[in-house]
Design a protein that fits this description.
Butyryl-CoA Dehydrogenase, subunit A, domain 3; 77% helix
Length: 158
């Protein structure tokens, strides 16, 4: 039941963070393995959705940290992500604004991209994002604001 209820939204959340379909599927699989192994540790301190997103977020961070160890710079990681969206059906390439929007998101620092995705795409409240990331809601609001400004700047100036 958990898998059928959460598989699609968690996949797309992970896909927006990881970009590559194959990598996103691997991270999603690890996420649900951790969910099932840790289900008895769920204490209702947050919603089940928040708890699962926290696990997915941690798995995304683990994956990105491993990827960073194998690359020289964050520019290479961003270039790799941009190449991944070109090599997949990640977005509709006939929609020029959608492509530009995704490129802008991929250029965000990791934490701002995480906050932006959780707030914009997943429509989570700052209190939920706070539980997922372990960051104060006020800080998340600032991160989201900066992310929006960077995206807006990229969209209008690039």
């Amino acid at each position: 039941m958990l898998l059928s209820a959460y598989q699609e939204p968690i996949y797309f959340f992970i896909r927006r963070m990881i970009v590559s379909h194959d990598d996103a599927k691997d991270v999603m699989q690890e996420t649900f393995i951790r969910v099932f192994r840790s289900l008895n540790q769920f204490r209702n301190e947050s919603s089940l959705t928040t708890w699962i997103y926290k696990i997915a977020t941690n798995e995304c961070i683990r994956f990105m940290n491993r990827r960073k160890e194998n690359t020289i710079s964050s520019e290479e990681i961003n270039e790799e992500a941009l190449n991944s969206i070109k090599a997949s059906e990640y977005i509709d390439y006939s929609n020029e604004m959608a492509v530009k929007f995704q490129k802008a998101i991929l250029r965000l620092p990791e934490k701002q991209r995480l906050v932006f995705n959780l707030r914009y795409y997943e429509a989570l409240e700052y209190s939920e994002i706070s539980k997922i990331t372990g960051t104060k809601a006020e800080t998340l609001k600032v991160d989201y604001h900066y992310a929006k400004e960077k995206i807006k700047n990229y969209m209008t100036n690039e």
